[in-house]
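W.,

You were right to be curious about this one. When I first looked at the sequence I had no strong expectations either way, so I just let the prediction run and decided to look at it fresh. Below is the sequence, 219 residues in total, followed by the output.
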Amino acid sequence: MNWKRLQPNKKGDPLEWDYQPPKINGGKQTIDDMSLISGMYGDYEVTKTGNLVGIIEVSGINLDLLNDREQEDVFEDYGAFLMQTLGEGVDDSLQFLEPTIPVNMTAYLNGLKKRYLALQKEQPAQQFKIQLLASYIDHFTQVQESKNMTTKQHLLIVKVPIKDKSMTSLKLAVTHLEEKLDQVKRDLENALTDFDLTAKALTSQEVQAILKNLINFKG
């Protein structure tokens, strides 16, 4: 994103955020018109309303594998995290998002391809195994490309305000956001440490992939 420093206002101060979302006009606006995202700065989104946004991806917990008591523990620990992060006296907000996304089978396919190449080189006589692996590779490649196999992604949206339209304010917001992301990740992992939950901040490429999936993951 090309972030330009705007001219100060009449009082000599940098311009503050004054964006107002447009009214829906019969679907005639472009995606850029309707989107609150102004652009990317590093791994973070800059919104037209003056916020810097980062995204944390959280691993899921399969409740079906837990007994009743363990499930209660999950909800109690998660409730404790919410109270600590967003409880009384905390002037903050988080957004939780669970989009449906295509299953990423790249790592699995790469493993099959390595086994296929190793068999061809070391055991060329094992034609049945080689052809079987080739059929697996072809099948799962088609599954991935068709994007018919989907899963739920667990996302935690974290934001901090950008004071005004200046590079100084933007860089300061980056520092604050990184500190906040680290704190939220620690709090969440500590609250659910008994269930091997992990959280990671997403990179710019991963964030853009999410935005594309939200519009149309088959496009």
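Here's what jumped out at me. The chain has a mean pLDDT of 84. And, maybe more interesting for your project: The beta strands are 37-41, 44-47, 51-58, 95-97, 100-102, 150-152, 154-161, 199-201.

Coffee later to discuss?

I.
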